[in-house]
Amino acid sequence: MSGTTRANYHHGDLKIALIVAAEAIIRTEGVEGFTLRKAARSAGVSPSAPSHHFSGTKGLLTAVAVRTFEKLGSELSALPSSGMPAQDLRTQALGYVKFAAINPGLFRLICRVDLIDFKDPAFMQASFDALSRYGHAAAAYFGQEAPDVNKRVFRPHMASAMATAHGLAHMVIEGRPALLLDTPDPDSMFIETMLPSVLLATWPD
């Protein structure tokens, strides 16, 4: 991209362009294939631009993680609520696993606390907001207090609920359903036909 075109970016536009470019790389190549140079080249800016605007790799990856949590939160919030704690918890967990299956590279990124600044205020808020509906469903099911962003305490019921969905999500993105199902698309079949039964066995009505 020419210097004239680069100059047409406003500060905020350039940051968004780099986030979008980084996200696209992670979608296709995984976080292992990501570099600042690739992101800069994809956005059509100088190699120094990502470091200048995000203070290096961790800063840009954290911004991508924030955007990923915002997308996860939007999808989980759009899921129907039945008013029945067990069903709502199963619905949230199913949505969580589906998000991971559709976005494996980005899902792996938000799990990599070694690559992102998990104490970044925007990241902390986005991650909490994304799982708010999930947290409330788990609290209702277990008869516990709902999560509070201002009270970062260990909640065994929430840890149990998250570990279940998180483990199932990793099971899917690591291709484990292929060990159970001899079909052209074992991941989708597992999610659609077997996962609801797994969740029902975990959190019965």
What characterizes the major β-sheet?
none
CATH architecture of the largest domain: Orthogonal Bundle
Oligomer: single chain
Shape: globular
Tell me the strand percentage band.
under 5%
CATH class of the largest domain: Mainly Alpha
What is the CATH topology of the largest domain?
Tetracycline Repressor, domain 2
Distance between the termini: 58 Å
Helix content: 55-70%
Report on this structure.
The protein has 205 residues and is mainly α. It folds into two domains: 1-54, Arc Repressor Mutant, subunit A (Orthogonal Bundle); 57-202, Tetracycline Repressor, domain 2 (Orthogonal Bundle), CATH 1.10.357.10. It is built from eleven helices and no strands. Helix 2 (11-29) crosses helix 3 (36-43).
List the helices and strands and how they pair.
Elements (H helix, E strand, L loop, with lengths): L2 H5 L3 H19 L6 H8 L5 H6 L2 H21 L7 H18 L1 H8 L9 H10 L1 H11 L13 H18 L12 H17 L3
Helix pairs in contact: 2-3, 2-5, 2-7, 5-7, 5-8, 6-7, 6-9, 6-10, 6-11
